[in-house]
Amino acid sequence: MKITNVEFVISAVKPHQYPEDALPEFALAGRSNVGKSSLINKMIMRKGLARTSSQPGKTQQLNYYRVNDSVYLVDFPGYGYARVSKAQRQQFGEMIETFLSDRKPLKMVLLIIDIRHEPSKDDCLMYDWLKHYEIPVCVVTTKADKIPKSKWDKHVKAIKQALGFRGGDRHVLFSSETGLGREALWDIINEQIEVTSEEAEETEEVSIENRG
Predict the structure, then answer these.
(1) I need a surface site. Which of 44, 98, 115, 156 has the fewest CB within 10 A?
(2) Could you tell me the CATH number of the domain that includes residue 59?
(3) What percent of the chain has pLDDT over 90?
(4) Is 12 exposed, middle or buried (0-12, 13-18, 19+ CB in 10 A)?
(5) How far apart are CA 76 and CA 79, in angstroms?
(6) Domain EngB-type G: where (predicted)?
(7) Residue 136 located in a structural domain
């Protein structure tokens, strides 16, 4: 996908701060320091727009990035970092649950997991949460460049088994270093936008027929 325009829009905490232009949104969820910011920078081909940090737990809001004036990438706070206070974790959890359960422009969540490690308890809870709310999910296994190519299938299989990966969900193998998976992930995002647009049109047609 050719990137022509990218803009950091807002770090939001409350629903009234979310953008109101109804562009499709794709949220990135994952444990602290899993590489969400690096993935965003590779996806948008900008080195430093999404700030990366060696300090886990730095992202504490929903960070909105508008791409080509047509879609938002929304970076969630990382979860599972021990030094974040219990009160902060609860606050983050409530913020994300509110977003997931009530955010109409949300089209899919990209669940980011380091391919070198099995999913954490929080990863599994997030996946189950998404299934509960019937939110489309794509599991993105990052840092593929960190292990030999011959081990990719074995690691991906273990991750899917630990999550209880359901049929119909998507998976992309990704590397922010090499760009592996970038185009595949953009293809999935664009496909999801098309599918949800068609579903919305069909719903509107049914509604008009019923009113008639």
Answers:
(1) 98
(2) 3.40.50.300
(3) 65
(4) middle
(5) 9
(6) 22-195
(7) yes
